[in-house]
Amino acid sequence: MPVLQIDDGGFRLDGEPFRLLSGGLHYFRVHPEQWADRLRKARLMGLNTVETYVPWNLHQPRSDDFRMDGGLDLPRFLELAAAEGLHVLLRPGPYICAEWEGGGLPSWLLADPDIRLRSRDPRFLAAVDAYFTRLLTPLQPYLATRGGPVLAVQVENEYGAYGDDTAYLEHLADSLRRCGVDVPLFTCDQPADLERGALPGVLATANFGSRSAQNLAALRAHQPAGPLLSTEFWIGWFDRWGGHHVVRDPDRAAGELDELLATGASVNLYMFHGGTNFGFTNGANDKHTYRPTVTSYDYDAPLDEAGDPTEKFHAFREVIAKYAPVPDEPAPAPAAKLDLGGVELAESAGLLRSAPALGDSVGSPHPLTMEQLGQDFGFVLYETSLPAAGPALLELELVRDRAQVFVDGLPVGVLERENHEHALAFTVPRPGSVLSVLVENQGRVNYGTGIHDRKGLPGTVLLDGTELVGWTSRPLPLSCLDTLDFAPTTATPVGPAFHRGTFELGETADTFLHLDGWTKGNAWINGFALGRYWSRGPQRSLYVPAPVLRQGTNELVVLELHASRHARTVAFRNTPDLGPTEE
């Protein structure tokens, strides 16, 4: 593969002028059996490059556990990109934002109560250096200087919006170089943050979604010579629970792209294909109010969540054709989808009753956070005995992020971080009644100083003004549901419960799981975690990739945290419902 050079005139590839026409495609948000399909479609739209972040928290879920296989087989993704004739921009972090859980920073870092993330804290830098060594050493053959597709590597991510410690960025750049990265490095920031986030001697790039001439002028003012690149040219946006499904007019977005390319600048579309926050991997924002991101990362991108071309795909292809050759092949057609109708979930297992089979409890005077328990995703079940009968006022100093409260197994209320709720009144039926608090991690904050986001009940718990002590904390990561003891039931269980059903398939294809009438929870198909659902919307269906299905019998498990308004049935349909759009 050719090598990227940077000079005062712009980018060159083996000495020839070169324009990056790139699109975001995060391998970790796409089923690995669909990587080749998405990469082919990137080429067919006229892109010559794809960009991907690298999620540290998935690759290294524990400090002593590093993974690069299955859906995290980054070398295979890079090989597939090269086979399609695509170059790659690699963005390894350590922080990636990406509306991803914790901005990609692993939760085990937060087990240290006073660690300072994204800083020169020696504990953080030591962890980053070890991560880079384990990630980048096997990736060296994929650098363009060794014949691979990786043209350039990013240093940190939008650091200027967070801090202004140049020495921190220098340490990261030096660490990348020590790990054998000998291709060009670059930083990216929004135009107003360029001074704080740039690193002398490293290419600065800008992130924006409109007013290209104005924003590129700001980049040129900061960097008088060299290539102009928008590393994140925002052509859509993400959704949050309780909001609208955000869309952007295709013609207007194409016009903005045309304006940018007319300047001669290079571009990376954010996103070309968004994909899905499968399982518990969505992030959250907290600008005085906590706002978790939905499961879908459709992003109103040229390829939708299922990998089908949208109007933007065709509009962008026409714009790109004005500035570069586009493959003389027809645009891909939408893939077939399954429409299965209803599936009954006839077996159930109560969560509180099943908890001992899902995780071991740990005793302590005070509730332990997820990080203290060595847990990244899922729930924690906290339990203690109540000293006396009668009216009681429970006060939770911090709820991270949603607490369902039970007395002797019966629900008495919900406290939500998003609504700034902390207190709940109820009646204790007898001395020694069991207080159970099921806390959901709805996604660690991925932007700003809120990334120091410890989950569970990090603060003091009071009952009638007196601190409650003597707790058990039980981690429920729900990474494996094989230990659940399901039984047929016709009655609706009280409290959170898992529901299971099966369905038969003669052939497999993508489909969408619709949970009309269900309230809030998670879903798994054949053990694959599809993600979260919530009746508050906007998202009202979950994308089911064809590779997680199989011919013959398939198993669906739904964790419902509250109750279904109808019989326990779901539907698989051939179209998604991402909710109402903004007017």
Biggest beta-sheet profile: 8 strands, parallel, barrel
Q: Which range does the strand content fall in? A: 25-35%
The overall average pLDDT, rounded, is: 97
Number of beta-strand segments: 33
Spatial separation of the terminal alpha carbons: 46 Å
Low-confidence parts, pLDDT < 50 over ≥5 residues? none
Q: State the strand order across the main sheet.
A: 4-5-6-7-8-9-10-11
Structural class: alpha+beta
What is the rounded Rg? 25 Å
What is the helical fraction, as a range of percent?
A: 10-25%
Number of continuous helical runs: 10
Overall shape: globular
Explain what this protein looks like in three dimensions:
This protein has 583 residues and is an alpha+beta fold. The protein has 10 helices and 33 strands. An 8-stranded parallel β-barrel has the order 4-5-6-7-8-9-10-11, surrounded by 4 helices. It has a 6-stranded antiparallel beta sheet with strand order 26-15-27-32-29-30. Strands 16-25-17-22-19-20 form a 6-stranded antiparallel beta sheet, covered by helices on one side. Helix 4 packs parallel to helix 5 and helix 8 runs parallel beside helix 9 (311-321). The radius of gyration is 25 Å and the shape is globular. The protein starts with a strand and ends in a 10-residue tail after the last strand. The model has no long low-confidence stretch (mean pLDDT 97).
